[in-house]
Amino acid sequence: MNAMNPILEVENLSLATRSNHKLVTDVSLKVEAGESIGLVGESGSGKSLTLRSIIGLLPSGIEQVGGNIRSNGRCAMIFQDPIRALDPLCPVVRQLAEVVYYRQKVSRKVARTIALELLEMLGLPDSLKHTDRYPRQLSGGQCQRIVIAMALACKPGILLCDEPTTALDVTVQRQILDVISRLQKELGFAMVFVTHNLAVASSMCSKLCVMKEGRIIERGDTLPLLQNPQNPYTQLLISSVLPLPDLERSADL
Ligand SMILES: Nc1ncnc2c1ncn2[C@@H]1O[C@H](COP(=O)(O)OP(=O)(O)OP(=O)(O)O)[C@@H](O)[C@H]1O
Predict the structure, then answer these.
(1) Predicted ipTM?
(2) What is the rounded distance in angstroms from the CA atom of residue 76 to the CA atom of residue 153?
(3) Atom of ligand 1 nearest to the CA of 17
(4) What confidence tens digit (pLDDT) does each residue in 170-224 have?
(5) Hey, whose CA ends up nearest to atom 30 of ligand 1?
(6) Which residues lie closer than 8 Å to 161 by C-beta, 6 or more apart?
(7) How high is the pLDDT of residue 247?
(8) Ligand 1 center to residue 223 CA distance, Å?
(9) What residues does ligand 1 touch, defined as CB less than 6 Å away?
(10) Domains of the chain: which residue ranges?
(11) Looking at ligand 1, which atom is closest to the CA of residue 45?
(12) Pairing mode of beta strands 190-194, 36-41
C-alpha cells in the first residue's frame, strides 16, 4: 500500500443528532497501512463519535450528515471499559472462540485452538485454557487482553482504540500499551488511537490530530506538534500536563 492508497480515508465527516445539533464537523483523516494516528482533545470534542462512525457503531439518535469513509481493510475496535465489552454470563474463552468461529469461518474445534493461541499471544495465564472463567473472575487488565484478542481474531487491517487503558490502573495501563505496540509491530495493523492523555498518545502514535468542539483544529507529526504547537488550544492542552518533579535535582537537595 502506498501514499496514494491509504488503508483508511475519512473525508469531511459530519455527525449530528436527529434534531440537527452538529457534534462532529468536517473531520478528515488519512491512515496508511501500519501507521498510528492519535485523536486527542478535551472531553466531548468528538473523538469517540469519530471512531464509532468509522466502524459503523454510532449510538442511536446520531447520524452521519456529511462526508465519506473509505477503508481498504477490516476494522476492529477496543473499548474503554473491558468488563462492559464482555458478556458477563459466558466464559471468556468461549466468547473468544465464538468471535474466531464467526469471523474466520473455521470449525468450532479449530476456533477453540486459535482462541487458545491468541490467549498465549496476549500473555494470558495457562489456567484460563483449562477452566471456564467468567469476566468477573478476571482482573481488568486480563479482561482488556481478552478484548484485544477478540479484536485480533477479526484479523484487522485497522485497529480502533477508544481510550483502551483509561479504566485500568497505571501499571496495568503500561502493560496493555506495550502489548498493543508489540502486536502492531508483529501483525502490522494500522491504528486510530483515541485518548485524552498526551503521554499515551505520544508513545503510541506517530501523528496526532487535536480535536476541539467536533473539529480537528491542528494536526501533524507527534514530536514536532508537541514541541511547537501552533494553535492556542493545543498550547493550552500541552501546558496543562502536570510535569513530574526533576527527580535527580530533588535528590541532590
Ligand atoms: N448518544 C449521544 N446522544 C447525544 N449526544 C451525544 C451522544 N454521544 C455523544 N454525544 C455528544 O457528542 C459530543 C462528542 O462526544 P464524544 O463521546 O465523541 O466525545 P469525546 O471527545 O470522545 O469525549 P471523552 O473524551 O469524554 O470520551 C459530546 O458533546 C457528547 O455530549
Answers:
(1) 0.96
(2) 9
(3) 4
(4) 888 888 899 899 999 999 999 999 998 999 999 999 999 999 999 999 999 999 9
(5) 44
(6) 77, 78, 180, 191, 192, 193, 194, 195
(7) 65
(8) 28
(9) 17, 23, 43-49, 59, 61-62, 196
(10) 8-84+157-240
(11) 21
(12) parallel
Residue 3 clears pLDDT 60, i.e. is over it: no
Ligand 1 atom closest to 60 (CA) = 1
Q: What is the pLDDT of residues 116-132, one digit of tens each?
A: 999 888 888 888 887 88
**What cell does 35 get?**
501507521
Minimal-distance CA residue to ligand 1 atom 26: 43
What residue's CA is closest to ligand 1, atom 17? 48
Class of domain 8-84+157-240: alpha beta
pLDDT of 1: 45
Amino acid at the residue 30: K
In DSSP notation, 103-147 reads HH---HHHHHHHHHHHHHHTT--THHHHS---GGGS-HHHHHHHH
